[in-house]
Amino acid sequence: MLLNYFSLPIRVYYQDTDAGGVVYHSNYLNFMERARYEWLRELGFNANALIDDHKVLFMVRSIEIGYFKPSVLDDLLHVTVAVREMGRSRITLFQEVLRSHVKLVSATIHVVCVGAETLKPVSIPAPLREKIGKSV
User: Fold this and answer.
1) Sequence-separated (6 or more) residues with CB below 8 Å from residue 35
2) Which end of the chain is less congested by CB atoms within 10 angstroms, N or C?
3) pLDDT under 70 in the chain at which residues?
4) Amino acid 133: pLDDT
5) 3-class SS at 9?
6) How many Cα atoms sit within 13 Å of 106 on the Cβ side?
7) What is the distance between the alpha carbons of residues 113 and 115, in angstroms, rounded to a whole number?
8) Phi then psi for 62, rounded to 5 degrees?
9) Which of 16, 18, 53, 75 is catalytic?
10) Strands 56-67 and 102-115, how do they pair?
């Protein structure tokens, strides 16, 4: 079951491509991180508020990624975020990069909520947990 589906449009710029004009593989990770930040903002939690108000931040624990088709300069992509599973201090996210509903890249990303000062796992703040737990 996927919760809190979110999609962010991203245009491919020259800086995102390699010498052949194709999006460089690691830039998809940047696109996905940008989408995760905007997803949190959409839920009402920006990164600074998480640190300042809740004293937490999220760190990537692991990523499993698959590349299926390339994208090129000026493509309009849609980068999605959906919650697959949520534990006490961890969230498993499923993300895709799409062009006109065609899957280019997909990834399963495990993030862990950690204390901003200790960088050790802590519980996901209750207000955020409640927002994430509501199916969209």
Assistant:
1) 6, 7, 8, 10, 79, 80, 81, 95
2) N
3) 1-4, 134-136
4) 82
5) strand
6) 6
7) 7
8) -160, 160
9) 18
10) antiparallel
The CB density around residue 26, as the number of other CB atoms within 10 Å, is: 7
What would the two tokens of residue 103 be? 């899957």
**For 31, phi and psi rounded to 5 degrees?**
-60, -45
Is 18 considered catalytic here? yes
- Dist CA 122 CA 50 (whole Å): 13
pLDDT for residue 135: 42
- 70-92 in b/e burial notation, b at 16+ Cβ within 10 A? ebeeebebbbbbbbeebeebebb
Q: Which of 35, 58, 33 is nearest to 125 (CA)?
A: 58
CATH of domain 3-133: 3.10.129.10
Beta carbons within 10 angstroms of residue 100's beta carbon: 8
Q: Is the pTM of this model over 0.70?
A: yes
Q: How far apart are CA 61 and CA 2, in angstroms?
A: 20
Q: Which DSSP symbol is given to 121?
A: B
pLDDT at 3 (0 to 100):
60
